[in-house]
Design brief:
The chain is 29% helix and 24% strand. An eight-stranded mixed β-sheet has the order 7-8-9-10-11-12-13-14, with no helix packed on it. Strands 1, 2, 3, 4, 5 and 6 form a six-stranded antiparallel β-sheet that branches. The chain is of the alpha+beta class.
Length: 318
């Protein structure tokens, strides 16, 4: 019996020794009070409820393993401007003996993150009362190569949902690069060749607009202008030739017909230059006609003078 008591007593002594030894290896520190103690932590675990500012602005817990290497981790709740509502963590690179940067955990309520954020999957934002309609929906690139941002979204793929605006990025295999859509109607499109269409799906120019453009001012760059009409070597068409062309063609020379305009539209810069050319030609015709009128007036004055002289001679002969 005495022998058994000795064995039990010895066993209890060994167990207490083991517990005491482990307790020494993982000795908890109730608080951190020294400046820089949080950064110098290595192994074990530490709870800190320090006062504001030093050595840490909030509650901090440190824990780790591999004490010789110092691969440790810390979790912090900032008591500063966030009022303790934000939680962050950081890990330590033991081999390099440096702490990695803090990473903030997303929590309920308002979260503010700095740096690059990578999210694999959909992002959805909805009203606070949980209404069915979504305020914002981000769709990352899918297997088809589409990606989009939907505003006021309801269920639907790539912007086909009811009552929503959608910005769509198309896969490289499509002729489209980017479009702005409401419901299932595209209002703004950019093609892979850089052409932009507003109200049209397939713009053939740098900017095609299916509708009215209202602007205070439009500036058009021109290569040439119509002042060549006033040069001496310019061959002013005869009015007889113009009359013949109008009778045969039904429009002015070098001016597109109604059929051509309805089919192809007009180039504003080119048309303004041609219209100015006709105005300048009309100016030359008017100047020429004015000269002829002046000559006729002079001849009329001469005839009037001769008539008066003849009347005087007749009166004398009577």
């Amino acid at each position: 019996m005495k022998k058994e008591k000795k064995i039990i007593l010895l066993t209890m002594t060994l167990m207490l020794f083991i517990v005491e030894t482990k307790a020494q290896n993982l000795l908890p520190t109730p608080s951190i009070s020294a400046v820089g103690a949080a950064n110098n932590f290595k192994g074990g675990y530490t709870f800190s409820y320090a006062t504001s500012g030093t050595p840490w602005n909030g509650a901090l817990i440190s824990f780790g393993g591999f004490e010789a290497n110092g691969y440790d981790c810390q979790i912090n709740s900032d008591y500063g401007p966030n009022g303790g509502s934000h939680i962050s963590f950081r890990t330590k690179n033991g081999d390099a003996n440096i702490w990695n940067s803090w990473n903030e955990l997303a929590t309920r309520g308002t979260n503010t993150f700095d740096g690059n954020q990578v999210i694999n999957g959909f992002i959805k934002s909805q009203t606070a009362n949980g209404n069915y309609n979504e305020n914002l929906r981000l769709l990352p690139s899918t297997t088809g190569g589409y990606s989009s941002i939907a505003l006021g979204a309801t269920p639907g793929d790539y912007g086909t949902g009811i009552g929503q605006w959608t910005i769509i990025r198309y896969p490289a295999s499509y002729n489209y690069m980017f479009s702005l859509r409401y419901n299932s109607t595209d209002y703004f499109n950019i093609l892979n060749n850089g052409n932009v269409g507003i109200g049209t799906l397939n713009p053939s120019n740098r900017l095609d607009v299916n509708g009215t453009i209202h602007s205070k001012e439009v500036k058009i760059d021109m290569i040439g202008w119509s002042d060549f009409v006033f040069k001496k070597e310019y061959n002013l068409p005869k009015l007889e030739d113009l009359e013949k062309h109008i009778i045969e063609k039904g429009h002015l020379e070098n001016i597109p017909s109604e059929e051509e305009v309805l089919k192809n539209g007009i180039n504003l810069g080119e048309m303004n230059a041609k219209l100015l050319q006709k105005i300048e030609e009309l100016t030359l015709y008017a100047i020429e006609q004015n000269k002829k009128i002046n000559e006729l007036q002079k001849e009329n004055e001469r005839f009037s003078d001769i008539e008066n002289r003849l009347e005087k001679l007749e009166n004398v002969s009577k």
